[in-house]
Amino acid sequence: MVLTKQYDRHVPEKVFGIIGSGNANNIALLPSTTKSSARRVFVPACENVLLWDLKTHSQINKFVDEASSTSVSKKKTREEVIVVSVSPNGKHLAVGYQNGIIKIFSLTQNETTVNFHGHKSTITTLIFTQHSATLISGSKDTDIIAWDLITEAGLYRLRGHKAPITKVILMESQPVIISSSKDMTIKFWDMTIQHCFHTIVTHRTEVWSIALAHDRYLVTGCSDNELRFFALRSTKTDEDDTFVFPPMQDEKTNEDQVLIHVQSLGSLVRKSKQRVSNLIIDNESRVLACHGMESFGEFFRIATIDEVRTRLRKRFLKARKRRENGDEKNEEEIKIDWDISLIFTLMCEIKFDGKIRAMDLFMDTNMICKIIALTLSNKIDISSLNIELLEFSLLFLKVNGIKIGPQNINSAPGTNRSNGNLAEKGGCC
């Protein structure tokens, strides 16, 4: 009698030695009521989300979906975490997976509270509203969905993009959603009527990331080596924006029912020739970080609104003085020389120990910007940047960070049959 050959089925059991996965779209800092240097950051690590303490360089917690990781008999596979987002009140963690599912974790109970099934493809971006009651998600299926965390249901779906969504941001002063896509467009959505009221179509390549400074200046990054800037003028406020924005090219009419007017401000050329991976602005809107799939990031200083007004007033007074000293009598309006360097100025370039995958910023009490970067060498690099040292036009700063386990993603582990010891060969050896 011939016995049938038996096969043992092996399934994933546990992952160790990983700080952050190479497919993560972002990392998220835990909101803090005080601007202390002790911060915590959420990092996607394969199918889990790890919470790291930046002061002690230790792992505090791990968030994993127990339902999908333990039901082996139902043949459920573990999905990789792509994007994470923390609510402003610090109570919920939103996790977007590769299969299009969004899971909401309670940070107090350390368990999944609700699952959202509305997207058909990978989640690419997540963001909470100011009151932490609504979650906005974008996916590769070209849809944007607003989710209500109280009723645990979807509110509405926004359709209009023809390519995967790359990033979604929210305005603080207006109920406006700003979305970017690989279809080379940026759309502005009114959340009250769920309607797109403006589209930027001037980009000639895929738009990979966007950022908003002072709720007035929009920054876009594409596949080329330029950063483009746009002014967002609110039509609902009576604020004097004479020394905040350049003169309007087209006069406002009463027929315009839009929330904001969009005006191009110009562009800046980056040093990197590769596409932009992400644009990040800190919590005080003082530093703009730009990085691609390289080992260095470019950092721009953002002027405050008072600084912008002061600089424009000085230029206005100089222009008026030149007119008064001249022989010609011109009654036309005095024109101010406007350029984007009034607001955004390149401070430095920081080189990290590996290619950057994700980054986040926060400003402490001493106006020192803390930079947290997840690299493809399985490390979290932490750096500090003093934005007041403007006499340095170019800086290369060394960084310190969290590093455990293999320092390269190209590794080959193996076991010894006799004693079960584990050995690993990495590309860094």
Low-confidence stretches: 69-74, 251-255, 390-398, 415-423, 425-429
Helix- and strand-based class? Answer: mainly beta
Shape: globular
Number of H/I helices: 2
For the sheet with most strands, the description reads:
4 strands, antiparallel
Terminal-residue CA separation:
51 Å
Describe the structure.
- This protein has helices spanning 66-70, 305-325; strands at residues 28-29, 40-45, 48-53, 58-63, 81-86, 92-97, 101-106, 111-117, 123-128, 134-139, 143-148, 153-159, 165-170, 176-181, 186-190, 195-200, 207-213, 217-222, 226-234, 260-269, 278-281, 287-291, 296-302, 344-351, 356-363, 368-375, 379-386, 400-403, 411-415, 422-426.
- By secondary structure, it is mostly beta strands.
- It has a domain at 279-325 and 335-429.
- It has a four-stranded antiparallel β-sheet, with no helix packed on it.
- A hairpin with a 4-residue loop joins strand 14 and strand 15 (186-190).
- The longest helix is centred in the last third of the chain and has 21 residues, at 305-325.
- It is globular.
- Residues 69-74, 251-255, 390-398, 415-423 and 425-429 have low confidence and may be disordered.
